[in-house]
Design brief:
CATH class: Mainly Beta
Number of domains: 1
Number of helices: 1
Oligomer: single chain
CATH topology: Neuraminidase
Number of strands: 24
Strand order of the largest sheet: 1-24-23-22
Radius of gyration: 17 Å
Distance between the termini: 47 Å
CATH architecture: 6 Propeller
Length: 296
């Protein structure tokens, strides 16, 4: 079921991701990039010529963020690694959470100023609040902004100093205000969901400030305004949606990742497109994307 306010929903890559994540739009490459965390893969889909490419790495990849040319930064378990994606050569890296060996990096995105935000969580997805929210600034300096998360997700940026961030296991989305030193000035629960509604996962914001939230378990993207009022829902033919990003020439195409994780054989028969990359054209547009601003 698709609302009449949206275009046709398309599966553009049935790549059968165990846990698709980290989707980004890179205008310079006419391409969407995303990851399969569990399979240690990065995918590239060129929307102009429809070409597809897969890169294999030695660690689980929670997110990918564009720097310049063929240079990207990857969140890899407990390592932030800048690489040349073409040859996978490591340029620079930093390790985190040496005291939490069973943690891994999950989702991450850049803010309007070019700083990189990401979260950590228990690698085995146990119900431990060992996760934290971090910011890596443009000088490659790391700041721990918040803690006590079970499964970190998001973030999505309303303004330079206002972001949404999620604890998927707690089914809560927070609205966080920070200062220039990445210290929290104010944090509040923006939205809270029931088990029936599903678990909020990756998010993005359109150019009107509306929040698009992917739901893991209930197969929809819910759209909320700045006041937290539900505006609409987009329903997908899969249960587990994980992340979304605006892309395309006019920034009005929403690209969405999904997962096969936790689905039984009978679930996969009914949801055979689980783990795919989807696209849907919208009437609204996304904000201008920003690359990670570290100067090599």
């Amino acid at each position: 079921m698709i609302s009449k306010n949206f275009g046709k929903l398309n599966c553009v890559w049935n790549c059968k991701c165990t846990l698709g994540e980290g989707v980004i739009w890179v205008k310079e490459h006419n391409s969407v990039y995303f990851t399969d965390i569990k399979k240690k893969l990065v995918f590239k889909y060129n929307i102009k010529n429809k070409s597809k490419k897969i890169y294999k790495f030695d660690k689980q990849v929670g997110f990918i963020s564009f720097v310049k040319k063929n240079i990207f930064i990857l969140g890899m378990e407990r390592e932030l690694r800048i690489v040349n994606l073409r040859n996978k050569k490591k340029i620079k890296s930093v390790f985190i959470e040496s005291d939490k060996l069973k943690n891994r990096i999950n989702d991450g995105k850049t803010d309007p100023n070019g700083n990189l935000w990401f979260g950590t969580m228990d690698k085995e997805e146990r119900n431990f609040a060992n996760g934290s929210l971090y910011c890596l600034n443009k000088k490659f300096q790391l700041f721990r902004v918040d803690k006590n998360y079970i499964i970190t997700n998001g973030p999505a940026f309303l303004k330079n100093n206002i972001l949404y961030h999620t604890d998927s296991r707690k089914r809560e989305i927070y609205k966080i205000y920070v200062n220039k030193s990445f210290k929290i000035l104010k944090k509040k629960v923006f939205l809270k969901f029931s088990k029936k509604e599903g678990n909020p996962d990756g998010m993005t914001v359109d150019n009107k400030g509306n929040l698009f939230v992917c739901f893991f378990g209930s197969g929809n993207i819910s759209i909320f305004n700045r006041a937290g009022i539900l505006l609409n829902k987009i329903y997908f033919p899969v249960k587990n949606l994980t992340n979304c990003v605006f892309g395309g020439r006019y920034k009005n195409e929403l690209y969405v990742t999904s997962a096969r994780l936790f689905l039984k054989k009978e679930d996969l028969k009914e949801n055979n497109l689980s783990g795919s990359l989807f696209k849907i054209k919208l009437q609204t547009k996304g904000k201008k994307s920003r690359n990670y601003g570290y100067i090599l």
